Every structure is written in structure tokens, then in C-alpha cells.
Amino acid sequence: MGAGDKKRFGEEEKRLLWEGAGELGIDLSETMVDSFIVYGELIEEWNERVNLTAIREPGEIITKHFCDSLSITRAVDDLGQSTLRIVDIGSGAGFPGIPMGIAFPGLSLVLVDSLQKRVEFLAHAVRELGLSNVTAVHGRAEDLGRSDEFRGRFDLAVSRAVAKLPVLAEYAIPMLKVGGRFVAYKSGESDQEISDSKRAFELLGADLENVVRFTLSGGEIHRSLVVLDKMLPTDPKYPRRAGIPDKKPL
Q1: What pLDDT score does 220 carry?
Q2: What is the pLDDT of residues 170-200, one digit of tens each?
Q3: What is the pLDDT of residue 218?
Q4: What percent of the chain lies above the pLDDT cut of 90?
Q5: Exposed (0-12), middle (13-18) or buried (19+): which is 217, by Cβ within 10 Å?
Q6: Is the per-residue pLDDT at 5 higher than 60?
Q7: Domain boundaries, the chain
Q8: Whether residue 3 has pLDDT greater than 60
Q9: What is the 3-state secondary structure (H, E, C) of the chain?
Q10: 0.90 exceeded by the pTM?
Q11: 93, 86 in Cβ contact below 8 A?
């Protein structure tokens, strides 16, 4: 943001954030709200040179990105008291990981993205926001899911990435401990995609636990959280080599 530019995130955006978080049962402190405002300003600044999001209006960023990210509480209980180790796959501009890290400082989060420029933004945002509980990592999920550092290491995996559910599952499930959970953010129309993914869930050692349906922005936007529980160790042949899951979904 250039010198003299007027900041576009102000009291109205704070109100939207407080209301949206309140509907989710999240009690944000003033310090947390201020961090979200700074985060929004960072997205605006970097979006001029790195394609982070097509959503540009501050109010829409609050509702469609920040509050949507925090809707994880609809699928996972007691995050405020939790010390879960979480991986955010295809984090992009930091959704849902950074909002989770701001609102729930007890969590330990790793943000994964395959594009170096986005990871540079994530690392910068984490530093500027003082999020000691969040780390940004550059890499492909297929490669990381086969590494000792990532495979079977996480309690919870999350993703708002735009990819088919079998692909996201192949990225995420290998990174989970047995008993861990994967939550995929999807549109409201997810039934067919879920039905088409059952074979993938079985091959990866996961079961469909729940589908949480809700609306954003005054009921205008329909969303689903697809919740998978990891029941068995994942076969060592998954994830397949980089690029294969997307080209040939399970």
C-alpha cells in the first residue's frame, strides 16, 4: 500500500468480523480483530503483484475469506482449548490457516503451498502478525506426504484449495495420524463429488464422518465442510507422484 493511501479496512469491517465470529461461537479479542485488519491490508498490498484472491472488497474478504475460514468450528469442537497440530494444504493467501492461527493461538499450524511467491507472502504475513504458532512451507503435497517430516504427523488437515475431493483426500490423508481428521471446504452442491470419492476414501484408509452444510453472507452463499476420519494407516503407495493425483483421481 503506497504512502498516503487510505486504509480500506476499518470499523465496518471490524463489525462484520465480530458478528461473523460471534455466530460461530468465537469470542475474538480486540487484539485478534486488529490482527485480522492488518492481515486484510497485507492481502490488499500484495494482491497488486501476486494473485492471491479475486475478491477485492474489504467486506467480502471479511465474510467470504475470514469468516468462512473460521467456520471450521462447525466441524471441529473446542479449538480454543486445543493444541492440535494442523496442516493447511494449498493455503494460497493463508485460508483457512492464518485466520485459525489468529483466533486460536494454541494451535500449531503449517501452511503448505506449491507456489514460491505465495509462500513468500505467507511467511511475510506470519512475521507481520507475530504468529509464532504458524509456519509456511513451500512444496507439493504429494512430495511432502511421502516425507518423514509430514507423513502421519498431523491431528487435523484442512483445505480450501480448488481441487476435486479425491485429489484433496490423496494430498491430506497420508499426512494425518490414524485417528486424525480432514476437513475439506466445498460448495453447497457437494453430494455428487462425495459420492464419486468413496473409493478414494477407502483406498486411503478414511471414512466419511460428516457433511456440515451452512450459508455465508446472509444466506446467499451455500457451503459444505466434508469431514473425513482416518481409520487405518495409508498404503505407502499413496500419495502418488507429483501431478498424478490431479490427472488421474482415485
Answers
A1: 79
A2: 999 999 999 999 999 998 888 999 999 999 9
A3: 67
A4: 86
A5: middle
A6: no
A7: 79-247
A8: no
A9: CCCCCCCCCCHHHHHHHHHHHHHCCCCCCHHHHHHHHHHHHHHHHHCCCCCCCCCCCHHHHHHHHHHHHHHHHHCCCCHHHCCCEEEEECCCCCCCHHHHHHHCCCCEEEEEECCHHHHHHHHHHHHHHCCCCEEEEECCHHHHCCCCCCCCCEEEEEECCCCCHHHHHHHHHHHEEEEEEEEEEEECCCHHHHHCCHHHHHHHCEEEEEEEEEEECCCCEEEEEEEEEECCCCCCCCCCCCCHHHHCCC
A10: yes
A11: no
The β-bridge partners of 227 are 183, 210
pLDDT tens for 50-61 read: 989 999 999 999
Specify the CATH superfamily of domain 79-247. Answer: Vaccinia Virus protein VP39 (3.40.50.150)
